[in-house]
Amino acid sequence: MSVREEFDEWAESGRDKGMEERHWHTAKHVLARMPVEADDYVLDLGTGSGYALRALRERGIARGYGLDGAPEMARNAQSYTEDPQIGYVVGDFGSLPFADDSVDHVFSMEAFYYASDPHETLEEVRRVLKPGGTFYCAVNYYEENVHSHDWQQNITVEMTRWNKAQYREAFRDAGLHVAEQDNVPDRDVEIPPADEFPYEGFETREDMVERYRTYGTLLTVGVAP
Q1: Cα distance between residue 31 and residue 57, in whole Å
Q2: Other beta carbons within 10 Å of 156
Q3: Is 0.85 surpassed by the pTM of this model?
Q4: Per-residue pLDDT of the chain (225 residues; tens, 9 = 90+)
Q5: How many C-beta neighbours within 10 Å does residue 85 have?
Q6: Which among 2, 14, 21, 39 is positioned nearest to 155, based on CA atoms?
Q7: Which residues, including other chains, have CB under 8 Å from residue 118's CB and lie 6 or more apart?
Q8: Of all helices (H) and strands (E), which one includes residue 170?
Q9: Which helix (H) or strand (E) holds 17?
């Protein structure tokens, strides 16, 4: 199944809102770090329900563009806002429909690893970013997060599972300076006492604490020279 087919089904069943709720736990902290200013244009890759751009507009960015590979996702996202300064388009991560040096910042939450060619995607991000522009790439599916390794079994789209060093190397290969990389913990998920385990697929409370409080979301920040 293609990315389009998989996530069109998610959008039609309302799972886009479920993703928004779960991703917001750490996405809100990532978005708070972005050095956006009032006249900035921001691109959201794998926009889903479009929540990130709505949040950034509240901070005063001039315009936001959300790109998704699934038409139903983009259609839903557009229906969730009446803001004329936010637009949603259907497109491929490997061929971004934006001019060179046209975007101030790029954000992506839990979507980068769906790229059919992640190196090509990074080259495209580098191309569209203005000098000094940033790419805030946030993922929960990555090598060090051992609790994410079985996620591929639950989705038909092939995903790329890199480790931290591979992310840094790929960013640099694409011409992006790596400004920072760290883990953003999820402190919103409630973790029950040890006597309630196994719970939600976790054998022990320690496993669940590690998944959310230690590994959380991996954030890699690249800067265009």
Answers
A1: 11
A2: 11
A3: yes
A4: 566 666 656 556 666 676 788 899 999 999 999 999 999 999 999 999 999 999 999 999 999 999 999 899 899 999 999 999 999 999 999 999 999 999 999 999 999 999 999 999 999 999 999 999 999 999 999 999 999 999 999 888 899 999 999 999 999 999 999 999 999 999 999 999 999 999 999 999 999 999 999 999 999 999 999
A5: 13
A6: 2
A7: 112, 160, 162, 170
A8: helix 164-173
A9: helix 15-33
Continuous segment of H or E residues that includes residue 64? strand 63-68
Residue whose tokens read 């979301």 = 217
Spell out the residues 6+ positions from residue 81 whose beta carbon is closer than 8 angstroms to its own. Answer: 50, 54
CA 164 to the chain's CA centroid: 16
10 φ/ψ angles, rounded to the nearest 5 degrees = -60, -45
